[in-house]
Amino acid sequence: MKGIGTVVVTYNSEAEIGACLDATAGRVERVVVVDNASTDGSREAVRKRPEIRLIANSENRGFAAAVNQGVAALDLPFLLLLNPDVELQTNLEPLARACGQTAVGAAAGKLIDEQGRPQTGFSVRRFPTPAALAFEVLGLNRLWWANPVNQHYRCLHLDLDSPADMEQPAGAFVMIRREAFEAIGGFDEGFRPVWFEDVDFFKRLRAAGYRVHYVPTVAARHRGGHSVGRLPAESRVAFWYGSLLRYSFKHFRLPGRVGVSMAVILGCACRMLYSALRGWKRAPVRVYGRVIGFACRRLLSGRIGEAGDSPVLARQ
């Protein structure tokens, strides 16, 4: 469709990227793939499709920076962010119409799994509160998934077949009006390499007065978690907590920052103890210890931190 440019960020996505790109054919005007230093055949898979522009980074710059690169390479009014493990199932005209409405900055469709079921709890969420993040890091949501805090945060009772305004769509499949993207300065590249950059973006978009609309008649199949699953387990833990704390210190007031930080410290201490009781597995004990130290330093300094700060980089 004319006027729609797609940005796909890849990281070791060889198995997924072909189907994703093929599904965009005839549905968008241009596609840009930004590859974050993949070591598999991701780039070769893209090069087999000469109509697709490839930006090949020499290092993993993170999702946020790669999205900003891709957007800068497009000059179209509507920007579709698409994960490489997402395959479009319908045309995108309803999303473009929604994005064209006054004060609407973005629109998202329905994400479905490989069995065609809506991905409830992931497709649409509310902005996380300090309580929601505390429940998450303390493991309470795993023990009691249907608790009221988690139900509210993950919109577990939302009818995903009905259109509505929303707060936080999944960054895996969302269309953004360029005007709105540029008005708030794009993605915050301090969330590196991954996690919470999309939450932060939509939080700032909402604060700037833009609405985000959910359009269930537009659907895409989503496999989920393929890129982060290829990161070392220790790095995944450190990056997730680092981004969570960055978001908390950027958007919460002092009581919320303190509450989330203390929940991180307590939750990680429990995980360290659990790992030790299971046979003193060094990697989990080490990384959770670093997260605790990182959270303590954030709490004492009160600062958001430098771009890309994480417990992996901030070694004790």
Can you give a write-up of this model?
The longest helix is centred in the C-terminal third of the chain and has 24 residues, at 254-277. The protein is globular. Helix 10 (233-251) packs parallel to helix 12 (282-301). Helix 1 (14-24) links the parallel strand 1 (4-10) and strand 2. It has two domains: 4-123 and 160-222, Alpha-Beta Complex (Spore Coat Polysaccharide Biosynthesis Protein SpsA, Chain A); 130-154 and 232-316. Helices cover 42% and strands 19% of the residues. It has twelve helices and eleven strands. The mean pLDDT is 93. The chain is an alpha/beta fold and 316 residues long. Strands 1, 2, 3, 4, 5, 6, 8, 10 and 11 form a nine-stranded mixed beta sheet that branches. The protein has a two-stranded antiparallel sheet with strand order 7-9. The protein has helices spanning 14-24, 42-47, 63-72, 93-99, 130-137, 140-143, 148-153, 178-183, 197-207, 233-251, 254-277, 282-301; strands at residues 4-10, 30-36, 53-57, 78-82, 86-88, 104-112, 124-125, 164-166, 168-169, 173-177, 211-222.
Q: Which architecture of the largest domain does the CATH hierarchy give at level 2?
A: Alpha-Beta Complex
What is Rg?
Answer: 19 Å
pLDDT averaged over residues? 93
How far the N terminus sits from the C terminus, by CA atoms, comes to 52 Å
* CATH topology tier name of the largest domain: Spore Coat Polysaccharide Biosynthesis Protein SpsA, Chain A
Number of domains: 2
Count of β-strands: 11
Overall geometry comes to globular
**String of helices and strands:** EHEHEHEEHEEHHHEEEHHEHHH
The CATH superfamily label of the largest domain reads Spore Coat Polysaccharide Biosynthesis Protein SpsA, Chain A
Helix content: 40-55%
